[in-house]
Specification:
This protein folds into three domains: 65 residues, no CATH class; 62 residues, Zincin-like; 140 residues, no CATH class. Helix content is 68%, strand content 5%. The protein contains twelve helices and four strands. A hairpin with a 6-residue loop joins strand 3 and strand 4. Helix 5 crosses helix 8 and helix 6 packs antiparallel against helix 8.
C-alpha cells in the first residue's frame, strides 16, 4: 500500500464513520428519549441497519474503495457459473477486485444480500491459484451457503444484540450513579459502548465454537464438490500468502479462533500432514511446505 492510498482510505473511512455513525447515534438517542421500552425499538433499528449494510457493502466498496471488474478469464468464469448453478446459488455476477494494491492476501467471498449478491475474487487469488484450487475455495464458501450459515450467523448476531439491548436497557439508577453520569441517552450509550466489548469477550468462545464447526462442515462440502486434494493445496497457499500460523494451543484456539488452524482442518479432511507417503498429493510438496 502506498502512503497516498493509506491516507485516502483513512479519510474515506473516517467520513463514512462520522456521517453514518452520527446518524445512527442520533436515531438511537431519539428512540431512548421518546419510547418507554426503547431497548426493543433500539434493537430493531440497529438490526435493520446491519442488514442494510450487508446489502449495500459491495456497492459501497465498489464506489469508494475498490475497483470491481467482470472476470476476464472467461474459461474460469464459465467453470464458476457452472459450480454456482450446481448448488443453486444465484448471484448478480462474478467479479475480480484489485486487492493487490493494498497487500498480498488471498481471499474470495460472496458479498451482499438479495439483488446485490455477487461473487468477489481478489486479483491475487486469481493470479496464484489454479482453476481447480480456486473452485475448491469457492466450494467451501458455497458450503456456508448450502448449510445456511449466513442465516444462522445473522440469527446468532440478532440474539446477542437483543440480549445486550435488554441488559443495557434495564440497568438500575445505581449503575449510572456509580459511574457519575445521568440515566439519559448519552449516559446509556456511553455505558453500552464501554461495557458491551467486555460481555462480547465472554460470549466469543461460544460463537467461535459454532463458527469452527461451520468451517469444518464447509470444508467437507467444498472437498466433495471439487476434491480434497485441491482444497488442501488451496488452503496451504492461502496460509502461506496470508501468513497464517498452522498450529496453536487448544486453549488459545478456544478463546480467539473463529476458524480452525490449518493442521486441524487438514486432519478433518482426512489428510495426515506428517504422512510423507500420501500418493494422492505426490508432487505438490504440501508436507515440505507446511513444515
Amino acid at each position: 500500500m502506498t502512503p497516498e492510498l493509506f491516507i485516502k482510505d483513512t479519510i474515506k473511512s473516517s467520513i463514512l464513520f462520522l456521517l453514518f455513525g452520527s446518524i445512527v447515534i442520533a436515531v438511537v438517542s431519539y428512540i431512548i428519549a421518546n419510547f418507554s421500552n426503547w431497548w426493543i425499538w433500539g434493537f430493531v433499528f440497529i438490526f435493520a441497519v446491519i442488514i442494510l449494510i450487508n446489502m449495500l457493502y459491495p456497492v459501497i466498496r465498489d464506489k469508494m474503495f475498490d475497483k470491481f471488474e467482470k472476470l476476464k478469464d472467461t474459461e474460469l468464469e464459465t467453470k464458476i457459473v457452472r459450480l454456482l448453478d450446481e448448488v443453486g446459488f444465484k448471484s448478480s455476477g462474478v467479479f475480480s477486485v484489485d486487492a493487490s494494491k493494498r497487500d498480498n492476501r488471498l481471499n474470495a467471498y460472496f458479498g451482499g444480500l438479495g439483488s446485490t449478491k455477487r461473487v468477489v475474487l481478489f486479483d491475487t487469488l486469481v493470479q496464484k491459484l489454479t482453476h481447480n484450487e480456486l473452485l475448491a475455495v469457492l466450494g467451501h464458501e458455497l458450503g456456508h451457503f448450502k448449510n445456511g450459515d449466513i442465516i444462522k450467523n445473522i440469527g446468532i448476531m440478532g440474539v446477542v444484540m437483543f440480549v445486550f439491548f435488554a441488559i443495557f436497557g434495564n440497568l438500575s439508577d445505581e449503575v449510572f450513579l456509580g459511574a457519575g453520569i445521568d440515566n439519559q441517552a448519552y449516559g446509556i450509550i456511553t455505558i453500552f459502548l464501554l461495557f458491551s466489548p467486555i460481555l462480547s469477550y465472554f460470549l466469543m468462545p461460544l460463537i467461535s465454537l459454532i463458527s469452527r464447526h461451520n468451517e469444518y462442515a464447509a470444508d467437507e462440502f467444498g472437498s466433495n464438490l471439487q476434491s480434497k486434494e485441491d482444497l488442501i493445496s488451496a488452503l496451504l497457499k492461502l496460509a502461506n500468502e496470508n501468513k497464517s500460523f498452522p498450529l496453536s494451543h487448544p486453549l488459545y484456539i478456544f478463546f480467539y479462533y473463529s476458524h480452525p488452524p490449518l493442521v486441524e482442518r487438514f486432519k478433518e479432511l482426512g489428510y495426515n500432514v506428517y504422512n510423507q507417503s500420501d500418493d494422492a498429493l505426490k508432487g505438490k510438496n504440501i508436507e515440505r511446505e507446511l513444515i
